[in-house]
Each structure stands twice: as structure tokens, then as C-alpha cells.
Amino acid sequence: MIIAKTIEALNEAKKSLKGNTIGFVPTMGALHQGHLSLLQRAREENEHLIVSIFVNPTQFLEGEDLDAYPRKEAADIEICERAGVDIVFMPNNDVMYEEDELCIGAPAVRGYILEGEKRPGHFDGMLQVVMKLLHLSSATHAYFGKKDAQQLALITQMVKNYFMDVQIVPCEIVRDEKGLALSSRNVYLKDDEKERALSLSDSLKCATKLVMAGELDVEIIKKEMLKVLDKADKVEYVAIVNREFKALKQVEIGNTIILVAAWVGKPRLIDNLWI
Ligand code: PAF
Q: How far does residue 32's CA lie from ligand 1's centre (Å)?
């Protein structure tokens, strides 16, 4: 496995890849089982596998946890090695950015609702770095978790709008045995908070039960979910949208995402369910 810290080193390492398909998994490190499932799928479906580890400053807002974001370089490298990664790209900020850059922006509607409304500017920075990483990796297939559903939708749109020659592969959410969606930020949760954090996945289970019982009215489902979310410290939103992120009045089976964002202790958590 080659560890490349500069663009030159990455380009040199890519010369050793002789196959036709390159799977790419961009990450911000602190790799967990959720990342591992992306690595495994990308490994299975491609001749080569590149992973990036870069805590991207432009997608953190003022006052967010950029400095405190968990960093576990040595453990991450070991995980990549075991997962059969060919190249780990680990640039620093100077490698990735210069001053006064040309930027792409998130779309005016879909980029500024839900996560985009609560974290204005986050998606601009995220798309900016993903665009760079997709170009740098020369990926044929790039793997993203459905947990960041809006991120996934915007990246898919960027690839379409900018005619980029890469296939975006959505991957299932990975949960712990109790149902908590895995996230690097879960390390911030204290024991009692871990229990209360389950209210996010429990609220989605509640929505599933209602839909399975034939309840499709979005307002009724949201009201019931909010009761379950009572254990969170602050609920930021419960939303029911179609796969294009347009608000729905009635759940459309096969075309709906139910999303929730809430604070539990230190971290802000998100989760969702695709129906
Ligand atoms: O989902 C993430 O970890 C990040 O947003 C990504 C896609 C690696 C871009 O920094």
C-alpha cells in the first residue's frame, strides 16, 4: 500500500495501477465499521482502490468541531492496509488549497434546506473538496454512505451537472447492534448519551411501523417521530422528502427519505431512512 501525501506522489503511485476500474472512498479519517463497509464494497467491485483521508476545513463552519474532529492516522492506515487499499491519499491543507480559490457552490434550493439551512456553506466546501478528490483519484466509481443523504444527492447532482465521468455508488447505512448509525462523531457520546442517541434510529423505526400499518400522512408521522425524539437534547429537524429532496405531503413508497437531525450531548447527529 502506498501512502501519498502530495499530488505528485499520488500521480506517481497511480502509474502502478494497470486495471480499468478505480474504486475511490473519500473520508475524513477516524475510520469505523461504516467506512470499512464502503472500502469492502469498493474493493470487491473494482480492480484498484484509493482512499483519501483529509479533514476538509472548508466544510466546517465557524465554531464547529474542526480542531476537535477525531484524528486517528495510525489506526486508519492499518485499517486501509487490512482492507486491501492500493493508495491512501493523505494531503494537508496546503496541498489541497491555495488562497482566493475558484469555488463551486451548492445549488440554491437543494443545497440550502435541511443540513444546508442549519450549516450554511457546509455543502459548498464539501462539493469543492469532493470535486478535487474525484479528479485527483481518477476514480471510475466513488462510494458514499446513504447516512449523509443530502451530501450524496448533491454529489450525484454535481457529477451530472459537470459531466464528470465517474459513477457515484450509494451505500447502505451501517448501525451498531442497538441501531445507532455509525459516525466518527459518536466517540463524543458519553454512556448515558449513547442510550439517548438511540432516539434518532428509534424515531425512524416508529416511522417504519406507521408506514407499514398504512399511515402515509407526513404530518402525522412527523408528530409521532417527535414524541420518540423527546430524549434528544435538541431536535433540529424531522423531514420527509422525496429522493429529489422535495417536501412531501404523503409518503411515496419507493421514493421517500425520512431524515432527522438532533443534538445529544456534544455531537449533532443525523440519521435517515429510505422508504
Ligand atoms: O462524508 C465525509 O466524510 C466528507 O464530507 C467527505 C465526503 C469525505 C468530504 O470531505
A: 14
> How buried is 87 (Cβ within 10 angstroms: 0-12 exposed, 13-18 middle, 19+ buried)?
buried
- Give the SS3 label for residue 7: helix
Cβ atoms of 22 and 47 closer than 8 Å: yes
239 and 130 within one domain = no
Alpha-carbon span 193 to 268, nearest angstrom: 12
Asked whether residue 152 falls in the same domain as residue 75, the answer is: yes
pTM above 0.70, yes or no: yes
pLDDT digits (tens, 9 = 90+) for 164-178: 999 999 999 999 999
The verdict on 100 and 199 lying in the same domain is no
Which one is catalytic: 35, 48, 122, 141? Answer: 35
CA 90 to chain centre: 18
Active site residue 35: yes
What ligand 1 atom has the least distance to the C-alpha of 184? 3
State which amino acid sits at residue 146. Answer: K
Q: CATH number, domain at 79? A: 3.40.50.620
Q: Does the residue 117 lie in any domain?
A: yes
pLDDT in tens, 200-223: 999 999 999 999 999 999 999 999
| Count of structural domains, the chain | 2
Domain that holds residue 157: 2-171
Ligand 1 contacts (CB < 6 A) are 26-28, 56, 59, 126, 129-130, 148, 151
Task: Choose the residue to mutate in 56, 159, 182 for probing ligand 1, maximizing ligand atoms within 8 Å of C-beta.
Answer: 56
